[in-house]
Amino acid sequence: MPALTPDTIRTLTETLADLTDYLRENPDPAQALALAEPLLDEYTGLPVQLADVLRALARALQEHPDTPRTPQGDLLITELRSAAWELADQHTLHYVLDDLRDLYGSSPTSEQGDCLCR
Q1: pLDDT category, 89, cuts 50, 70, 90?
Q2: What span, in angstroms and rounded, lies between the C-alpha atoms of 16 and 33?
Q3: Angle in degrees, 0-180, between the axes of helices 29-40 and 93-105, rounded to the nearest 10
Q4: Are 101 and 33 in contact (CB under 8 A)?
Q5: In Å, how far are 28, 40, 58, 101, 111 from 64, measured between CA atoms?
Q6: Whole-angstrom distance, CA of residue 118 vs CA of residue 110
Q7: Among 7, 9, 42, 65, whose Cα sits 20 to 30 Å from the Cα of 17?
């Protein structure tokens, strides 16, 4: 795996900002849902990945010999872990995405062959 740098992570966040800008332009719902789908996947989506990052960061800091062993440091590491749990709870957003797909793909008129989402 190539070495990660702050610049590679900034590129990722810039891509997410580009997606936000695109979604603010009122794209076709089917396209918008397709773009959001990888972010909300229940196993590999952003909430799960970010939770994993926070847990790994907490572990790396806690286990590093240069980390100060103070109550404040322990509290900050605990806060990282708490935030990770809160983010992981958001994995259920994929159900919202499923329901939205159903809403746009299974409207009452789509049963007659006319999908409102196209």
Answers
A1: confident
A2: 14
A3: 160
A4: yes
A5: 48, 32, 10, 45, 59
A6: 10
A7: 42
